[in-house]
Amino acid sequence: MQRCVLSDSGHPTVKMAAPRSWALWSFCGRGWSRAVSGYRVPGLRSSWPRGPLGARLLSQEKEATETHFGFETVSEEEKGGKVYQVFESVAKKYDVMNDMMSLGIHRVWKDLLLWKMRPFPGTQLLDVAGGTGDIAFRFLNYVQAQHQRKQKRQLRAQQNLSWEEIARKYQNEEDSLGGSRVMVCDINKEMLKIGKQKAHAQGYKAGLAWILGDAEELPFDDDKFDVYTIAFGIRNVTHIDQALQEAHRVLKPGGRFLCLEFSQVNNPLLSRLYDVYSFQVIPVLGEVIAGDWKSYQYLVESIRQFPSQEEFKEMIEDAGFQKVTYENLTSGIVAIHSGFKL
Ligand SMILES: COc1cc(O)cc(C/C=C(\C)CC/C=C(\C)CC/C=C(\C)CC/C=C(\C)CC/C=C(\C)CC/C=C(\C)CC/C=C(\C)CC/C=C(\C)CC/C=C(\C)CCC=C(C)C)c1O
Ligand SMILES: C[S@@+](CC[C@H](N)C(=O)[O-])C[C@H]1O[C@@H](n2cnc3c(N)ncnc32)[C@H](O)[C@@H]1O
């Protein structure tokens, strides 16, 4: 359990109950705040006395457990349920909405995530908050194409192979991935259901598993995966620091964390246009296409609540990852963060 409390300086911080360690970040009210630097957290007890008195009063009285859901302040207990309802409601229109909202650009971002990953034959991928399977399908396409290229090279190099031997090599579906596998883990049954239907319709079977699970408490052993991905998912998680620690736990030493998420736009003109587009157009599209204004209002608000590239990088480092870097895509509308468990 993560709690917002006031630090000695009178500013809110995050406390994790045992056995988890103290975390440096809070995600309370309508903004992020670094505990050690004592930033203001808008929306959190604005009338509370500041300074040491405020700190004492709050820690003595009780520990607040507020967080946000878009621009709304809610209790931590409420947030998970609200996020669940959003994705339950949008699941059937999720894919079409993404194409409409981004005019297909989300596909390029997801392709870039795969190119950055550069999986090798045998890569074991865990795609958390994997939803309808976009990352998993791209992964399977990538490793299959890579394996086929390798197989062709080998077959061309080998002399005197019979036609049966060649055909067998091509037809062995399990082997067509070179031992790579992907597990899609998501908390929402409806999103997974759509993903499974898509997999069936598009003929994906080998090397793919669907698991219902929470990013904050992954149902996997330690040191199990080569790569952990989370695309447009971490923004929705209540305790992001906990999800990052879980990512670290399930990765093998040497494993890689990759996160594709909305971030802060670094071009002022684009930022203005993007704001107008987000707040004036996206909820309208949500209403017209998915019959759901509120969920798309939540989407654009949650994007504004997510920490900047640099802030998120520090959170990933706090979870124990090394060599943490990020790359902005489309002027920072989204960013890919990468880190290693070393
Ligand atoms: C509930 O939670 C969720 C639900 C989901 O379905 C999905 C997610 C996760 C989300 C994704 C996987 C991707 C979702 C995509 C976005 C949120 C959009 C990202 C945005 C872009 C790639 C484009 C950025 C747009 C701009 C920089 C602004 C462009 C400005 C304008 C077009 C003018 C400003 C708008 C007006 C004056 C309003 C009047 C216009 C209209 C009524 C026409 C509507 C216009 C369009 C549909 C055109 C949109 C244009 C583009 C997309 C052009 C892109 C251009 C560039 C990138 C430079 C989830 O969590
Ligand atoms: C915007 S979708 C992203 C789906 C997919 N990764 C993609 O890129 O299209 C966000 C997903 O996060 C999932 N999610 C939200 N909170 C979660 C949690 N605590 N654990 C696992 N999945 C979660 C939602 O159910 C939803 O499927």
Q: Span from first to last CA?
A: 27 Å
Helix content: 40-55%
The sequence of SSEs as H and E is EEEEHEEHHHEHHEHEEHEHHHEE
* Small molecules bound: the ligand COc1cc(O)cc(C/C=C(\C)CC/C=C(\C)CC/C=C(\C)CC/C=C(\C)CC/C=C(\C)CC/C=C(\C)CC/C=C(\C)CC/C=C(\C)CC/C=C(\C)CCC=C(C)C)c1O, S-adenosylmethionine
Strand content: 15-25%
Major β-sheet strand ordering: 9-8-7-10-11-13-12
Write the layout of secondary structure elements.
Blueprint: E1 2-6, E2 12-16, E3 25-26, E4 33-34, H1 51-61, E5 66-69, E6 72-75, H2 76-90, H3 94-102, H4 105-117, E7 124-128, H5 134-157, H6 163-171, E8 181-186, H7 189-202, E9 208-212, E10 225-231, H8 240-250, E11 251-262, H9 268-290, H10 293-305, H11 309-318, E12 322-329, E13 334-340
Parallel strand pairs: 7-8, 7-10, 8-9, 10-11
Antiparallel strand pairs: 1-2, 3-4, 5-6, 11-13, 12-13
Bound molecules: the ligand COc1cc(O)cc(C/C=C(\C)CC/C=C(\C)CC/C=C(\C)CC/C=C(\C)CC/C=C(\C)CC/C=C(\C)CC/C=C(\C)CC/C=C(\C)CC/C=C(\C)CCC=C(C)C)c1O and S-adenosylmethionine.
Task: Describe the fold and architecture.
This protein is an alpha/beta fold and 342 residues long. It contains eleven helices and 13 strands. The strands form four sheets. The protein has a seven-stranded mixed β-sheet with strand order 9-8-7-10-11-13-12, sandwiched between helices. Helix 9 runs antiparallel to helix 10. It is globular, with a radius of gyration of 22 Å. The two termini are 27 Å apart. The N terminus is likely disordered. The structure holds the ligand COc1cc(O)cc(C/C=C(\C)CC/C=C(\C)CC/C=C(\C)CC/C=C(\C)CC/C=C(\C)CC/C=C(\C)CC/C=C(\C)CC/C=C(\C)CC/C=C(\C)CCC=C(C)C)c1O and S-adenosylmethionine. The ligand COc1cc(O)cc(C/C=C(\C)CC/C=C(\C)CC/C=C(\C)CC/C=C(\C)CC/C=C(\C)CC/C=C(\C)CC/C=C(\C)CC/C=C(\C)CC/C=C(\C)CCC=C(C)C)c1O binds next to helix 2, helix 3, helix 4, helix 9 and helix 10.
